[in-house]
Amino acid sequence: MTEALSHNHETEASPEDRMRSLIDVISAYIEQYHGGHVEMVSYDGQVLKVRMGGACEGCHLSEGTLRGWVEGSVRQFFPDLQRIEAV
Description:
globular, alpha+beta, 3 strands, GMP Synthetase, Chain A, domain 3, three-stranded mixed sheet
């Protein structure tokens, strides 16, 4: 029964809410290890737009953080995502 309730709760969240939660978790790791952060600007089911901030802003390694940490993690949970853009 607990499993069924947990499953129903997960399916109630919209894809946008699930994406926002995932980005929040990724951002917490980036903040802890790099002093930067990432926030979701928009997600339409195909394109994710994020804003890099903190120590990531202007950092020459922010593209690697975006592609490695953010995109690499997001694609595990949203494999049909077409692209991720930093705005």
